[in-house]
TrEMBL record:
Its EC number is 3.1.3.-. It holds the Pfam family Hydrolase_like. This is D,D-heptose 1,7-bisphosphate phosphatase. It is an enzyme of class 3 (hydrolase). The active site is at D9, D11. Its main location: cytoplasm. Substrate binds at D9, R10, D11, D17, H18, G19, Y20, T51, N52, Q53, S54, R108, K109, K135. Belongs to the gmhB family. It comes from Rubrivivax gelatinosus (Rhodocyclus gelatinosus).
Length: 193
């Protein structure tokens, strides 16, 4: 039986989008995101990050910088009880400045390549999964891949048309019941835990 996943865009959903975040010292979890991810994991969801990282193609940070940040993010989330089943990224951009990464590809959202690869490698049921993103390109990638539900962390009416639901944050989406659990979702921990 295939597993269900919550696909998460990184910048703007998991961490605050400060623009081309490529170093740990610039990485800041969105308030409530880690607890929401822990609760989703405890409810049986596989957590999968799918992220465009054009900062690599643009020369703002290297693939090694990205990998170091990702390793730290994964360790922090695992320690908080929210282990990631996978992290998939696209380093490409057609207008990049680093030749090795300057191209059109099938993995840069809105193309569905990252989601399809994750589903194949992790044995995921796309129809039973949810994507939480913050841009129309996230919703378009999810639709193209056949993801069953799309939630956008957005305020704009234009974004709402592409999604099944919108919310101010991942934590708010979870609190509002916009992500349907595979089994009941544990209550939020108090700030003292």
């Amino acid at each position: 039986m295939s597993a269900r996943a919550v696909f998460l865009d990184r910048d703007g959903v998991v961490n605050v989008d400060h623009g081309y975040v490529g170093r740990w010292q610039d990485f800041e979890f969105v308030p409530g995101a880690v607890d929401a991810m822990r609760r989703l994991h405890e409810a049986g969801w596989r957590l999968v990050v799918v992220t465009n990282q054009s900062g690599i193609a643009r020369g703002y940070y290297s693939e090694a910088d990205y990998e170091a940040l990702t390793a730290r993010m994964k360790a922090e989330l695992a320690a908080a009880g929210a282990p990631l089943a996978g992290v998939y990224h696209c380093p490409h951009h057609p207008k990049g400045t680093v030749a090795a990464y300057t191209r059109d590809c099938g993995c840069r959202k809105p193309a569905p390549g990252l989601i399809l690869r994750a589903a194949q490698e992790l044995g995921l049921s796309l129809a039973d999964s949810v994507l939480v993103g913050d841009k129309p390109s996230d919703a378009e990638a999810a639709r193209a891949a056949g993801v069953g539900r799309v939630v956008l962390v957005a305020d704009g009416a234009a974004d709402a048309a592409l999604a099944d639901a919108t919310a101010p944050s991942l934590a708010a989406a979870l609190a509002a019941g916009l992500i349907q659990p595979s089994r009941s979702i544990p209550a939020a921990r108090s700030a003292s835990t």
